[in-house]
Design goal:
single chain, about 210 residues, mainly alpha
Length: about 210
Amino acid sequence: MATPLEKARRNPDSVKARILSVARKLFGQYGFQGTTTRMIAREAGIDISTLHYHWGDKGDLFEAVIHDLNDETRVKLIEIEKKIKGKELTTRIDIALDEMFDFLYENPEISNHTIFRYFTQTTTDLDLNIGLSSVPEYISDIAYSMGLSENRREVSAEAQIKVIFMMNALHNFVSGETFFRSILKIDRDEYRRLAKETLKFYNIAPYKSI
């Protein structure tokens, strides 16, 4: 039997898919604790009973959101790996940063969720670390794809922390856009350009002499 997430993906115009889309955005903006099912129902233009009919309780919907974001990220990483395969290291990093920034910038809830999971502590019984078991795999895959490791299954801590540095910088630039732009007093296009330029400067420069 198909899961609610699978059903939503099969029919992107359905009520179920609309609820999922709204939940992604609101959980990303306010976190699990700050988002209520009533907020999601109101934003989706439905009543609360309809939300529960399609997704169960808030924890079920949150879990579906995390799996959806993880799967979407995995697909993008595979796409990037195909583009950078065989290229020299600095070119790989340049392309990967460019592609990942654009992807995250268009899907800011991914970075927002990641930042929330870095810093938010909860007293609920819900395991908000849903999907974290896949993070080491992501990190290892990225390290291998970028040429920081010769073996996908045996990636050193040194290589992994370099990937963590890159990903953390990406998430912070995307999630912090509104705050940073208010300081810099620039529009979105200029922010996007400067963020990419800065990311590449600090992540590519150390490898130019390798």
